[in-house]
Amino acid sequence: MRLPSAGADYTSQRPPRRRRDARAPGGGAAGRPSRRSVQSGGGRGRFLFVSGRGGGAAMAAAAAAGGTGPGGGGRRGARTAATNILAQLRHGQLSGCGLTRGSQITEALLKERDKQAKWNGIPLLLQKLYEHSHPNSDFSQCQSILKEISPLLSMEAMAFVTEDRKAAQESTFPNTYTFDLFGGVDLLVEILMRPTLITQKKKQKISDDLIKDCLSILYNTCICTEGVTRRLAERNDFVLFLFTLMTNKKTFLQTATLIEDILGVKKEMIQLDDIPNLASLVSSFDQQQLANFCRILAVTISELDTGSDDKHTLLAKNAQQKKNLGPSRAEINQATLLNIPGFIERLCKLATRKVSETTGTSSFLQELEEWYTWLDNALVLDALMRVANEEAEQSSTESSDESGLANTSTRTQLPQSMKIMHEIMYKLEVLYVLCVLLMGRQRNQVHKMIAEFKLIPGLNNLFDKLIWRKHSASVLVLHGHNQNCDCSPDITLKIQFLRLLQSFSDHHENKYLLLNSQELNELSAISHKANIPEVDAVVNTDRSLVCDGKRGLLTRLLQVMKKEPAESSFRFWQARAVESFLRGTTSYADQMFLLKRGLLEHILYCIVDSECKSRDVLQSYFDLLGELMKFNIDAFKRFNKYINTDEKFQIFLNQINSSLVDSNMLVRCITLSLDRFENQSDAKVAEVLSECRLLSYMSQMSMRMSFLFRLINIIHVQTLTQENVSCLNTSLVILMLARRKEKLPFYLRTLQQMEYTEKYPGFILNNFHSLLRFWQQHYLNKDKDSTCLENSSCISFTYWKETVSILLSPDRTSPCAIVSYIDEAYMDIDRDFSEE
């Protein structure tokens, strides 16, 4: 149980902004978390622990080069001799020749050089440890030796954790470096694994305390000395062996923490099937252990992120998919987890249990004691005592009782604060794993299970008291941070909760479980009043699985969304979660349900009146507005009522035009809606068409051509990503609607004229030709799901394919072929854009 640190896509920074047009094969939803985002830089960090590395590389380089290196000092001759020993050891470890561990050096030499080199007796202690850990030893002396070594290393680890991050990266940690250099890491691995290597019937027994000491020292060395974690990660036998130690409750916490760090740097993801007796191991965990185990699972089920921006292009991803024909290891591991009996059910119980249902504070206090002993981490207790003192002061201020009240408050309030924070930490881990599984290939199976185990009603019951609880004056935060920064556990829990809702609702019929029975009845009434058929999913929703209480989870989310401060980092995630409810086939009843609750006015206030500057939040608002208004004449009428002056409308247009990548989904919605309204003969529709500023603006041919020209111009095949490929599809929508009206040649001719006006003939149409060629490669792949394009446009995918084929026709006499509008001198349509 450790507090998450700031950054990465696990916290308030958003995931890659995957639009609906580019969903991953296998039904993946927006923003699939990546393995790197889980582990490095933050988001899945520690309670005052960090996963960064110290200056070991610089020390190793200095030693190998014959410099003083860490531990140098004293007289020049002694320093040179000590350095020579370090250099020989490092050379031996790298080459396998000569000295490879400190036990090969004579005791006399080590004693002679120890004081001048400032080794603090570590090489001599390692020699003693080596002598008392031979295959036939009983390890009786090992623990006392480790008790001498441990404080030397834990002080350095504590210094790394608590000092300024930049200073920590620049500083050196001689004790941990010396411990590793003289073979300490390898020796501890041997000691831990010794029982597994002996064939005797009577196995050697290592005490729990000795195992804990070994694991703690290994972890501290990993923190401070660069390369140690990676070396351990390369030993698959040791990694798998560590999982066997998790069966012991006394060593679970240290084992889990070390495994998490090792897996975070491992080049190849482990396969959960390789873990001995995985199902029985998981079933042996209590709920607290299972929650902590989810930290490890997060690394094994999240897709590996290359960490390089150029590898996120669709070209690169398509090329990678061609190489990897089978499922990835992350997908295999997800399937493995789903096959463990009762696994999802236990996660749902963990996610939805109330604080009062926890097993008490004893296990939490035990973990705190282990942290304190492990890293001498007084800051942990300092933070908790600060909470207690604040609550005591608050209670004494509010009451005029005798002076003993403050002490009583400290004794009674602290455990409750700890229990709440404890539960928040556990729910973070569990919600993350459920979120990843909801975006995997087995999405429908996961949906069925979490619906059956009533995850959504359970979260609804926790919404006010835990998930979106009102902040008290005493909110536990990380050392050196404040309660509003992204590493606050309260904030991280909210964001993870919103991401789960987004994944749960996205293109799935189970989204109606976010409502209660009365709200489902309201949807039916809206359909009846509009004289349209009820949505099948609403009719078929199992009422025993929906939210209970006065409000469903979606309504609760809308309430807090409308109260969110302008500068809040939650706005992006809230908009994404609500938008996912509207995705898929457009539902008039769903839209009206949200319109009645003032959502449109709230969005327009944020875009226009508060003049939101955040590109992330603006994109999420534009996308949500597009889904809310698409084909809904009432929504456009409400829009015109709110945007009731030319000044307001100009601000709105400025926001749209400031970044078409962010606003193009709204442009697509307006274009599609205008086309449908123009083909209707209803008097109400005609009235809105004549009055609505937005529809009148888009009805101008010059405006549509301007959008089309810019949409094509801001993207290129080599820079297409999940974020901006929607611009290509929006431009295609404009041309498909033109084709329906037999105006496609006019649009292409106008684009040609605009090219000449810009004095760069061919640059738009050549680019568009290349983009459409890529579109065919990308969307006609058998693994691609085309239903997103159909649902978002209400245009059959067959018509999409036909339109692209017509535009790419090589016949220069065809009035609908792009090549007919590119002069021979400027033709550049055969360029190879395949990713090597």
UniProtKB/TrEMBL annotation:
Q: Name one GO biological process term.
A: ubiquitin-dependent protein catabolic process
Q: What cellular-component terms does GO give this entry?
A: Cul4A-RING E3 ubiquitin ligase complex
* Segments for region (Disordered): 1-49, 391-411
Q: Which GO terms describe its molecular function?
A: phosphatase binding
Q: Which organism is it from?
A: Calidris pygmaea
Quote the protein name from its UniProt record.
Answer: Transient receptor potential cation channel subfamily C member 4 associated protein
Task: Output the superkingdom of the source species.
Answer: Eukaryota
